[in-house]
Write a structure and sequence with these properties.
The complex is a heterodimer. Chain A is of the alpha/beta class. Chain A has helices at 9-17, 23-41, 49-64, 110-118, 160-167, 184-190, 224-234, 260-265, 285-300, 316-331, 349-360, 363-376, 381-404, 429-433, 440-445, 473-486, 511-521, and strands spanning 44-47, 79-83, 121-126, 173-178, 193-196, 216-221, 271-275, 304-308, 409-413, 449-457, 460-467. Chain A contains 17 helices and 11 strands. By secondary structure, chain B is mainly alpha-helical. Classes of the chains: A alpha/beta, B mainly alpha.
Chain lengths: 522, 101
Amino acid sequence: MTDLTRLFAHEMTAGLRAGEVSSRELTAAHLDAAEAGNHALNAWLTIDRESALAQADAADARLAAPAGEADDHPLLGVPVALKDLVSVKGGQCTAGSRILEGYIAPYDAHITERLRAVGAVILGKTNMDEFAMGSSNEHSAYGPVANPWDLETVPGGSSGGSAVAVAAYHAPLSIGTDTGGSIRQPAALTGIVGIKPTYGRVSRYGIVAFASSLDQIGPFARDVRDAAALLHAVSGRDERDSTSTPVPVPAELLSLPASDDEAATGLRGKRLGLPKEYFVAGMDPDSRRRIEESVAALEGAGATVDEVSLPHTDYGLATYYIVAPAEASANLARYDGVRFGPRLGDSDVLGNYLATRGRGFGPEVKRRIMLGTYALSSGYYDAYYIKAQKVRTLIKRDFDTLFEQGFDALVAPTSPTTAFTFGAKMADPVAMYLSDACTLPVNMAGLPGISIPCGLSEGMPVGLQLIGPAWSELELFRLSRGFEALTAGASWRGREPAQIALTTDPEQPTPAERARSLALAR
Amino acid sequence: MSGLSRTDVEHVAHLARLGLTDAELSLLEGQLNHILEQYMKLAELDTDAIEPTAQTIELENILREDVVVASFPVEEVLRNAPATAGGYVVSPPLLGEDSGR
């Protein structure tokens, strides 16, 4: 019998519509996989079996008696995982933080409503770096997440749990958020597809905020078509998020070519740019070779790839680490122990604030609140914050200039390295921040960027990033689908994560135990 | 743009309402200064004539319809509060002798 967890979402859709499988069967198979794999992977903070099965039964009823257009979406009956910063009414929403432990969302996020409307089945909530601040998932208050390709390595972050849930076959689809690379980098490190849409594409109503001028929601999937279908389901204008933009959501997101020949043909005549600055200092040479081979494959399919320059790339890191912490320090002021979350301390208002925030936040969040508070404080506002916003203009102009010249997209590495070992970057925040050197400029410019698998380096996945002009998600998906088709016969394509078999062994150490023994050995 | 002293770190922690231990303050002093060194790179760029970018999508104001919609039920909203009484959140006094100010 087929293992239902190995199916792509579009295969599940076909099976559901043909009556060959029920949503209850699909949902139960994924719940079983998630429960069995969570000891060794720690990808999930909540697995809600009862609610998921009830949603599956409701989806099966809709499939049996479809009531028009509302029941046409391909995700009807398909399981999905949500990062634990998406509000699901009546469920805990921690954002990976102790300060939200026990917080029960009083309402559904916009994207939760959208997923319910199309009939997707929400399995539960995934682990993440606290308040989405981190590039390894080691900054979760609920323990690190292991990468199924090598259980001693990180899955990337901050959406590490959502990436692993999909890479390890606990869900065909998941939702993450990306403020500086938090979807694309974990997608690259776990060998799956992840897209950060254009700023404004998906409403953030009901999402725990990190940096409001940068945060964007997006999908993870094991192939390009599935990612496009999930983006289709959650996109579109919502008046409860004033940055959500009234730009039409293309229906073609649901009809990317199934045929490899057709998809590859679409690459012919495409004009791509290869920004030389993205081959950053410290880039792993073998990962670089995978990118170069990918470029050669794209050229072989009839695309032209020209070396281009984004001259302010090197200023991205400093700019980001002023703007994002500044916005975070303001957003996180609401966690004061008064209206929700644990209230620590037993004195006056100020004493309670200091205790609640001092003990409720983890080290990375405190570091960023400190950075942001400093950058916004009297006497430094112009020197840091305004300066960074001006450099942000220059970074955005770099991209605008290239797209005005007619490039369809830019091709680049997603991450300078493959997945690193637990603890490797925990002592040096700047080393950790550099993990996002190739992704954060895209957030600064508000553009869409997708990471797709492009091979292995020493057995670990490498991601190829495609960056497009604003609102070009459909084009990015078409190009990505073309690349996927070109590499359909590659030896690494379809290979399961190397240590997937170990992830269901209850004798295996937890990720936290692995991280501790590695720290002791260091 | 000079470095942060220990007193500066303590001041910023106070502004941010973060109660930090001595060990945390010491660690942060080193780390924040290392990160601030990265910021110095921005001084290389002449940005006098550049406008700042606060957001990237050039949206005009969009007004929503001014209609009455239901609020969340009080009991659901208050369910997350650490202390409540009579439909309100209970907090230590903000003003007066007991406020600690």
